[in-house]
């Protein structure tokens, strides 16, 4: 017998010698048992609802049966919970259970967990169709279909002690029961039930069929609220359960409450889930390596799934949740790590070792000094580029923190090392703006030598005529594309900037050494990978101004190294943010007018309309009409939305930048990157519809100038949560703080808008649980060191689980 089991044996012996007073462990046996069961791999059949709640006879029975099992060191029998002996079981039930324990069933052939749920007794086609609506198709889905919460019916009351108005559970015998019909014709069941302390009346409205099943002397458990009716206590439509029927699932314990859909009832769901647990759990494979389980202190898988549905107590529920949450995070980590491994180990990168002089000259040419955060990040990037392993780095930084100049420096290093560089932006406007910026920053730089590097890369270097860096723009709207393609392929173009047009088949680079992706979260993993395929293992730098909370970054981009610019260039003023109620609309307009009178410009952002860009465009057009005729007839108003052609948008932006438009009415297309330093005020309509991170992005658009700038948030009738968010916008400028809050308030799905973010559904894990996430990460890294391909036999089940996850996330 191993140590923990020996300890358990000793404690049970002690408990026995003390007459089952629950004194063997300070604080009672329950906590000890919970810990034992969650930390030690042999799950234990725990007393239900708890040891404390059992009377002495029941305790004796449980202790003896557990001791029996411990001492004979039998392999555990997990399924039926034998020896969990709830006292209320009838003799026949007890007998059935005994036959189970005395002759442990021979190992059954593994039942496929991937079969359809119609395999489970009690689920017909119609019910399966309803389950399908909840995403439950296979038996595995059903086992992982966790309750939303539990109701605590675990404490048993005696009838004499029943209190009015609170949830209670009794175990009683039926004295009499009959069907009743009310004056209005409603049929119900009425019964009198009793225990050793008294009797109580029970009414089930609308359930006349129950009367027949409640024959006298039937033992039942009832859970629910007791009400006063003509001065008498009455149970009204309580949950009920026949005690002969097996384990308690509706009463007398922590009872699961499942999400439902039309035509699917709670009692049914409990029943079939229980059925599936009993039949299939013994066949579920533990996929966590033992070492991991031991170090993290996790409950076994089958026990965890059982406890997640039918916990033996709060502590069990927590332990189960922890185990299952760990699984989710651990599997995600393994899948991102395997992605990183596939990328880094399969590929030989190009070492970009440009002469330091290029960078020095570039930095000297800037009208400002880099902030120390920019310098640090640039060093990290340079270090990566010099390696012959391809870089995979996420560059995070607030709006306006100066990521572009860092990216430009990296691209220059690529060009000066004899390679091409590409920058992909999510929208045409943004691509155009990047193009202008990069031209301004690098357009007059001369790369005069093809640097002399180590021999390995020499033969592949493209023939480059010494001279100015050639920067070009490629978007869907570009003209003379063929010619452009040709110049890209020949290597004449040094730096190509564009939208996803860059990842089209026709675009072939001569020698692509660095890929920069802006606003990374807008592109899926797929698109990232495609751009990367354009070169033979180019380095990759992804930039994001959406401050991604660390926990989420580790989960989503665990395959990337992270650099952070956590400092703004000096001289930026805080943008003043005010939340306006509908009554303050006019004063908001007056404020905009005043800023225009001072020679500045303004954005007015229309509310987010989820349905379609078309409807959004129409709404923006209507708002534009209204503002230009009714509100600001004397000012120059412009319109920008996502349905306009590129040339139209370009035209508008050109006018706006040239100061020929006072107020630009726009949809959320301004979210990313558009710079017009003269804009000092932004008014956002329907502000409550946008996420905090998105509002912060908007706000960044007027944060460029050295003038004091303002953000006005208009909101018609924000919910409680909406109000909380808007208040936060007023109070904080920390993008990370806002992102964390967004994540907390709206969840990761909302945070990124779509599933394209590559984040699988999390049922148990909370991304706010940093501790568990980091444990999962360090265990995953450890495992990767031991067996990166997960090919050892003991990791087979784990490797399958990772494969299942990767298939679900559709990488
Ligand atoms: P973002 O990180 O949002 O992409 P940008 O790179 O567009 O920010 O930079 C915002 C503005 O700040 C640009 O006009 C840029 O020229 C300027 N800038 C960048 N770095 C510095 C710096 N170290 N000092 C002063 N201004 C800077
Ligand atoms: Mg930017």
Please summarize what this structure is.
This protein is α/β, with parallel strands linked by helices and 811 residues long. The two termini are 46 Å apart.
Molecular structure report:
By secondary structure, the chain is an alpha/beta fold. Helix content is 41%, strand content 16%. The protein has 27 helices and 23 strands. The chain has a 7-stranded parallel sheet with strand order 13-14-10-15-16-9-17, with helices on both faces. α14 packs across α15 and α24 (720-731) runs antiparallel to α25 (735-752). The chain is globular and about 95 Å long. Residues 74-108, 451-459 and 753-757 have low confidence and may be disordered. The chain binds adenosine-5'-diphosphate and magnesium ion (MG). Magnesium ion binds at residues 403-404, 545, 673.
Strand content: 15-25%
Number of helices: 27
State the end-to-end CA separation. Answer: 46 Å
Please state the CA-atom Rg, rounded to the nearest Å. 33 Å
Q: What general outline do the C-alpha atoms trace? A: globular
Question: From the helix content, strand content and strand pairing, which structural class follows?
Answer: alpha/beta
* Total strand segments: 23
**Low-confidence residue ranges:** 74-108, 451-459, 753-757
Q: Estimate percent helicity.
A: 40-55%
Strand order of the largest sheet: 13-14-10-15-16-9-17
- Residue-averaged pLDDT, rounded? 82
Ligand list: adenosine-5'-diphosphate, magnesium ion
For the largest beta-sheet, the strand count, sense and barrel status come to: 7 strands, parallel
